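Input record, target 12 of the design panel.
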């Protein structure tokens, strides 16, 4: 069983597991994608990445006009996630790298978040990305973590000589 995990590391981020899916001209079955908002505790995060062949985590960086306290909090959380991954194969992926590949075919007039949502709807048509039953809009951390996982599947398929 092959497990690839994608992580959008913010507190409002998400974690996605793609299980035995190769991304070649098919939509993942509901059983092959598990996606949820970033867990509040590290034990759940550890469970989600357990057994992963590779974890692809978006490289953290500060944002323009982001306050010092929020930057520090984000960096601390990112460090905690990396600590959990100490014995798990993982790679850091800059946002522009995974977005360039995954957003192909989406309008460049849209914001990156809107392009991510459009790509997710196209690539994962059976997934709502709704975090709770009371939510009405997709959870962007869940959307982007699924796209990062798909990027990871494609990168590994390319590295192993497969076409994805």
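The sequence produced for target 12 reads:
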């Amino acid at each position: 069983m092959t497990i690839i995990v994608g992580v959008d590391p913010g507190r409002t981020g998400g974690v996605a597991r793609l299980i035995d899916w190769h991304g070649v001209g098919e939509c993942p079955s509901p059983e092959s994608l598990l996606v949820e908002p970033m867990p509040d505790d590290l034990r759940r995060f550890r469970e989600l990445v357990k057994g992963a062949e590779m974890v692809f985590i978006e490289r953290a960086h500060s944002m323009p006009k982001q306050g010092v306290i929020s930057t520090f909090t984000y960096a601390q959380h990112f460090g905690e996630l990396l600590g959990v991954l100490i014995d798990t194969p993982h790679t850091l992926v800059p946002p522009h790298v995974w977005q360039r590949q995954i957003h192909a075919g989406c309008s460049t007039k849209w914001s990156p978040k809107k392009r991510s949502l459009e790509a997710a709807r196209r690539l994962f048509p059976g997934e709502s990305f709704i975090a709770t039953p009371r939510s009405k809009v997709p959870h962007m951390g869940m959307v982007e973590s699924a796209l990062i996982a798909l990027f990871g599947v494609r990168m590994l398929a390319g590295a192993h000589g497969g076409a994805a």
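The helical segments are 42-49, 68-84, 95-102, 112-123, 140-159.
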